[in-house]
Specification:
With 424 residues, the chain is mainly beta. Helices cover 7% and strands 22% of the residues. The strands form five sheets. Strands 7, 9, 10, 12, 15 and 18 form a six-stranded antiparallel sheet that branches. A six-stranded antiparallel sheet has the order 8-11-17-13-14-16, with no helix packed on it. A two-stranded antiparallel sheet has the order 1-2. Strand 9 and strand 10 form a beta hairpin. The longest helix is centred in the first third of the chain and has 29 residues. The protein is elongated, with a radius of gyration of 48 Å.
Length: 424
């Protein structure tokens, strides 16, 4: 029995050693699991065996995360790893800036880029999307270097695809055409098609056409509200008092009118002024009456003409007319008083009826730096107070002069042109 006992004891011991050996084998072969393979979320991991500050692999899509670095997609959204997109408000994938560049949409001006394809303008300079219209080369949708397409229009003779590519707005045979005043296109600085602007000298705009200034219009009248040319009034040739185109200081001999143009003043010491025929530029009118003055501080100064003054000043019968009209402008906006002396108010007219004279029928007008036509009807006039005897009404049948008057102390530099009577 002893051998059996020994055998049993030996087997048991042997078996124990085998188990122990087996245990050691398990311990050395499968031992405690490595941290990134222990199938549990350790404190330095964002999810089981991944992410976080650990050396584990980055987490797959849908795994928990706290930062983009936790995810193999480099995008953590709502604490779960997600696939990046071009609308996720994060710079990821191959984007050069947030949600643009690379495989996403092109970036706008001023945004980071690597190649021109990253930019909506197809121009990447020094790592920033820049304006391709100043790159110095033809690119993007340009039709010629730095012009056409989305850039500024191209100058004459440069390449184009359509009229909009050209400053002249005319593209023919893929080249921008030099603009003219007969090309049936509104270009250059024309206010309307082929008229006004640079074309005004040869083709001013007719009534109804668009205008920017009075110089665009044949009538020289541009409505300040509609910016369209308006018709001028019709003046009979014989109704012209003076258009000054003959260049002299005397009235043209029309309907018995005769008289000089003159400047007058209150003789204040040190006051200066003049009246002269001067070159102007107003459509077909090349000459007008120019007057300046300053330093007249008593009753002021002015300029004018007598209508029937050969050797002495006589009244002129203007009863066939309804008023006077004229053009005027000044170097600065100012008030000008239009005075119409007659037999009842003018102390210098032969046959005067006044004892306290030179208080005339007047109308104030506001003259600006732009040429304007003014029309004053007899009914628009008011009588200056102080005369005696007081006239009952203005009498155009005894009109003696047409005068433009300036107030005491007023400094002025003004022009008048095309003075005429108007029919009823």
């Amino acid at each position: 029995m002893e051998p059996d006992g020994e055998g049993g004891s030996g087997n048991e011991s042997s078996g124990g050693r085998a188990n122990s050996s087996g245990g050691r084998a398990n311990s050395s072969g499968g031992g405690p699991a490595k941290a990134c393979e222990n199938l549990k979320k350790d404190t330095n991991e964002s999810d089981v065996d991944c992410g976080g500050t650990s050396d584990c692999v980055r987490c797959a899509t849908a795994a928990r995360c706290t930062a983009n670095r936790d995810c193999e997609t480099d995008f953590c959204k709502a604490n779960h790893c997600a696939e990046p997109t071009c609308t996720d408000s994060v710079q990821n994938q191959d984007e050069t800036a947030t949600d643009c560049g690379g495989s996403c949409k092109p970036c706008d001006l001023g945004v980071a880029c690597m190649v021109k394809a990253d930019c909506s303008g197809e121009y990447c300079a020094n790592g920033v999307c820049s304006d391709h219209c100043v790159s110095g080369v033809r690119e993007a949708d340009e039709t010629d270097k730095d012009c056409g397409g989305s850039c500024a229009p191209c100058a004459d003779t440069l390449k184009c695809s359509e009229g909009a590519d050209c400053t002249s707005k005319i593209c023919s045979n893929k080249a921008c055409v030099v603009p003219t005043c007969t090309d049936a296109t509104k270009n250059q600085d024309e206010s309307d098609t082929d008229c006004g602007g640079v074309c005004a000298a040869t083709k001013a705009c007719v009534a109804g056409a668009r205008c920017n200034t009075e110089a665009d219009c044949a009538s020289w009248i541009c409505s300040p509200t509609t910016k369209k040319c308006l018709d001028d009034i019709v003046v009979a040739p014989t109704a012209v008092i003076d258009d000054f185109e003959d260049g002299d200081m005397s009235l043209p001999a029309l309907e018995g009118r005769v008289g000089p143009w003159y400047a007058y003043n209150d003789m204040t010491t040190g006051g200066t002024g003049l009246g002269e025929i001067s070159a102007i530029k107003r459509g077909a009118s090349l000459k007008g009456f120019h007057t300046t003055g300053k330093g007249f501080t008593n009753w002021g100064s002015g300029c004018g003409t007598d209508l029937n003054h050969a050797s002495s000043k006589l009244p002129y019968n203007a009863s066939a007319y309804a008023g006077v009209t004229f053009w005027a402008r000044a170097d600065a906006a100012m008030t000008v008083t239009v005075a119409l002396p007659d037999l009842d108010t003018d102390k210098l007219t032969v046959g005067k009826t006044c004892t306290e004279c030179d208080h005339h029928y007047i109308k104030n007008v506001q003259v600006t730096t732009a040429w304007q036509r003014f029309t004053i009807l007899w009914g628009d006039l008011t009588l200056e107070p102080g005369g005696a005897p007081t006239p009952t009404a203005f009498n155009p049948g005894t009109l003696s002069s047409v005068q433009f008057r300036f107030s005491p102390g007023q400094v002025y530099d003004a022009y008048f042109d095309d003075i005429a009577f108007v029919k009823p």
